[in-house]
Amino acid sequence: MWWYVGRRVLQTIPVIIFSTLIIYALVFLRPGDPIVGLFGEKPVSDAVRAQLESQYNFDKPFLVQWLLFLKDAATLDFGTSFSGQPVTDLVLRAFPVTITLAFMALTFETVLGVTMGTIAGLRRGGWFDTISLLISLGLIAIPIFVIALVFQLFIGVKSGISWLPPTVGGDWSLNELIVPAIVLGIVQFAFVLRLTRTSVVENMSADHVRTARAKGLSERLVIRNHVLRNSLIPVVTYLGIELGALMAGALVTEGIFNIPGVGNLAYKAILKGETPTVVSIVTIFVLIYVFMNLLVDLLYAVLDPRIRYE
Amino acid sequence: MSERTTPRPGQERFVAPLDETPLQEVDAVDVHASPESQWKEIWNRLRKSVLFWFASAILLVLAIMIAFPGLFTSADPNFKDLADSLEPARDGSPFGFDRQGGDVWARTVYGARASVAVGVLTTIIVALVGTITGAIAGYYGKIVDTLFSRTADIFFSIPLLLAAIVVISVINNLYPDRGFWGGVAVIVLALGAFAWPQLTRQMRGAVLEVKTLEFVDAATAIGATRWTNLRRHVIPNSLAPVIVTSTISLGVFIVAESTLSFLGLGLPNTVVSWGNDLAAAQIQIRSGQDLRVMWVPASALAFTVLGFILLGESVREAIDPKARKS
Question: Is the ipTM of this complex over 0.90?
């Protein structure tokens, strides 16, 4: 198994290197002089310009810039933002709220999605199945910012519930994140529900479930140990792979509810053309994706005893 | 043994009478008729699905709306009079006016074009790239597979929305002035460039399964080349899951376009589109007044996306033998 983990970790290295190269190249292609942007279109003396250009490596060719970035990134030094703060500090400050938000969303979508998906799958074709189909497809069809704005208006403002405020702000607390987390998780909740339902339906007619029934197990045990355990494999895969997308997608939710998270930081940095910040944040998302993928692969063995790693 | 070879008293045969067994159904099959194709069978099942007809009805209305918007409204979507700002409904304008004084209903009708153009074009690009790369990776295997799969991994590891924002902000700065098709092309490119790996993976998986099946060996045995085999047998038989995913992701791309518009990175704001109208409507929602400006384009968008997703779901049910009701 450790051999397998080692090989998988080695395989992720080219993914990390080339995905940062793509983003670096894109931000590099962006026209306009970043130094002029930094000074707000005011004149810059040549000496200051030369100093700044060498500080941010703007005077070096593209590939050298990128290699220097990679070299520093390997030691977790992501350079400084245009406002002079180390990017690592900026990201570390923004990270806790995004992580908390993402895990609240993940809990919401998993608990509700798996429960409803299982019920729909077990009573296939029944009224619950039909209603949950319509609800889940409807949620996928509505843009998340519309849901966010409507929730903000009706729950945050009009309902007058004081512990569910419409915006969050710098000093966030858990209760303030409840509504944003539901909004963030709502689309994936729909996908989790569909996925669970499909695989429960598939497993209900599988041979091993028939065998379990035939040997006299109670329906509860059959469903818990034989249907659910097998049905959860695709769901776990989906959730693992989508965690990075969930956190990146949080930039819309974070913007609307005024949450000072990583998505917000990334969005502002992209618009300003701040290469170091953008590439660092993307790198972090790529790392999350790679790590979750590895974790999911290892979880397979726990969920499916037939899988063994050499 | 011996007592079984002779009939019991009152028993004429050892097998059930022919009319009691389903054997006659087997006999009734005309073995000389050419077999029905996979797609014909799918169509026969699809025809009986309520979801399929519901989705088709939505998409038909949408198609008419795109081809002949004049049938639905006589107002000009680009005509705005500030005197009409947020005016309620009146004759010829069933849903009133937006903040700028534009006719909400006319803008929604004409906005279908942009959203559907983005959805359809992105899906075509993603499906083409995904199918071809996935088929080649799965069929040829070895070093080719490694090359294609690892490249797909690289693009897949960057979150789609974030990547699209970076691409669009770069192009926005390079070419700030774009018309309708220029604007559509940028979004299609930005979404397409990072969305194809999902289909590559799916197609590769399907091809890996299909290429081991007997009819592929049979074709090889009668002298089909690897290329003919891939083109005539492997790809057509692996397409089903790709078609389902593409139909569903068409809806997802339409939603993504509106999200990009909301972030100010969608179509140019001279283009009439649902995304732009929704983005403009957020001021009304945020101040808690007049949700009508939002819900008309939002419902149009939701119904369109629902149409495509339901189409995909019903085709999935028709294709997948395991998901079928027996």
Answer: no
Cβ–Cβ gap A146/B167 under 8 Å: no
The DSSP annotation for chain A comes to: -HHHHHHHHHHHHHHHHHHHHHHHHHHHH--S-HHHHHTTT----HHHHHHHHHHTTTTS-HHHHHHHHHHHHHTT---B-TTSSBHHHHHHHHHHHHHHHHHHHHHHHHHHHHHHHHHHHHTTTSHHHHHHHHHHHHHHHS-HHHHHHHHIIIIIIIS--TTS-S---SS--GGGGHHHHHHHHHHHHHHHHHHHHHHHHHHHTSHHHHHHHHTT--HHHIIIIIIIHHHHHHHHHHHHHHHHHHHHHHHHHHHHTT--SHHHHHHHHHHHT-HHHHHHHHHHHHHHHHHHHHHHHHHHHHH-TT----
What dotted CATH number matches B56-72+98-323? 1.10.3720.10
Mean pLDDT by 10 residues, chain A (310 residues): 80 84 80 66 74 71 78 73 76 87 91 92 86 87 87 78 73 81 90 88 85 87 86 84 80 86 84 77 84 81 68
Q: What's the CA gap between A161 and A151, in Å, rounded?
A: 12
Measured between CA atoms, the residue of chain B closest to residue A282 is B158
State the CB neighbour count (10 A cutoff) for residue B140: 16
CA nearest neighbour of B140 among B45, B204, B48: B204
CA distance A96 to chain B (A): 19
Find the residue in B nearest to A271 (Cα): B169
User: Is this model's pTM higher than 0.95 or not?
Assistant: no
Indicate the residue of B157, B278, B310 with minimum beta-carbon distance to A286: B157
Q: Which residue of A has its CA nearest to B169?
A: A271
CA distances from A129 to A124, A194, A201, B30, B202 (A): 6, 10, 11, 39, 27
CA angle B204, B206, B211 (to 5 degrees): 95
Spans of all domains in chain B: 56-72+98-323
